[in-house]
Amino acid sequence: MTSTTPVTSSTGIAGQTTSTRVVSIDIFRGITMAVMIFVNDLASVHGLSKWTYHMPASVDAMTYVDMVFPAFLFIVGMSLPLAVRQRLRRSPSMSRLWLHVTLRSAALLVLGLILANVDACDRSRMHLSPFAWALLGLGGAILLWNVYTGLSGRVVLILRLAGAVLLVFVFAIFRRAVPGGEAWINFSYPEILGLIGITYFAACLLYILTRQWRAAPLAWLIFLVAYNSACAAHWIAIDHLSLYLWPFGNGAMASLIMAGVVTSLIVLDDGRIGGPPRKIQLGLLMALLAFASGWFLKPLGISKIRATPTWALWTVAACCLLFTALYWLCDVKKQTNWAWLVRPAGSNTLLTYLIPDIYYFLVALTGTAYLQEHWNQGMPGVIRAIVFTVAMLLAAHAATRVRMRMQL
Predict the structure, then answer these.
(1) Which among 273, 287, 375, 402 has the fewest CB atoms less than 10 Å away?
(2) What is the pLDDT of residues 186-222, one digit of tens each?
(3) Where are the alpha helices (DSSP H) in 182-338?
(4) CA–CA distance, 313 with 290 (Å, rounded to integer)
(5) In the chain, where are the structural domains located?
(6) DSSP state of 13
(7) Reported pTM
(8) Torsional sign, CA 310, 315, 318, 320
(9) Which of 376 and 12 is assigned the larger pLDDT?
(10) Looking at the DSSP assignment, which residues form a beta bridge with residue 177?
């Protein structure tokens, strides 16, 4: 690279710690986190434009809200080549690499299942509040996967074991009511973290096995878009296939990660592509091609809920534009001070992701509902969401400063 930035360590939402010279990835991730916190809180506010919420599955349209989750997948893809490269430098063992990928995917699935099953908890059978159950589970996860510094190995081992015991406990006691009796964890929807974990594993199957071929990620991206289009056109029926058996789904989510991989390889190449101007040109070209491809595939629908190719491709286009702009501003021009609030959320993303949920569960546990009852309409609700977002980002900033950081 012609322009370099000091090496920094960052932890993405998929838990991978990467050393990267592209500060814009952290800031891009932090901006995405901020938007996610904002729109999640805004979802409980009434009386706003339909463009402020997710579009229903029956409508062929998408809003900026529909781009938040796929943006995470795109960023996971951007971090993937960096994480694999660093992992293999530390240990060239492919078996250890695959074990690492599998455990990371499983950890994200565990977290996702906790968040997805809170509302299904049967208090009468568990003798425990659903919100207390979730807090115990997230507390166990933080203890198990926190990055400890300045502590003896014995203390760290005790803390990690305590976290593991808590996780086993919350899963062991979980019960939900079903017609005719009770049931255990519902695996049908593993929440966003679980979906990221499953799709991350699918993308690794493609990328790691073919990483020696420079054009492979682009070829996989084209294949996944074609496959997603065939599914959207009902030429291929996958409705009966579980994500646990077929982690590629209809190809949309995997294509988003692979698009991130391609973008990362453009920006983090070894000099064969050229300097920043050339990389910026290619980033803009990729955005243009993704938008044009999405426009061409519009007859197949535009929907996040249905995971159509246009939704995925237009998200890729938006992500490429935003990242290219951030690359120019942050890495080429070295202007990063403006991002002081979001940057910790981008380098400590998994913990930042959980902080709002921890807050919601604590509020629910105490029975406090003032904000939900009084600041949930129109502009006051928007102000509430903005203040809440800033508060959560400051909490993430504080957690990072005291060296609370989760790493899978």
Answers:
(1) 402
(2) 999 999 999 999 999 999 999 999 998 989 999 999 9
(3) 191-209, 216-232, 252-267, 276-296, 309-326
(4) 5
(5) 8-401
(6) T
(7) 0.91
(8) negative
(9) 376
(10) 182
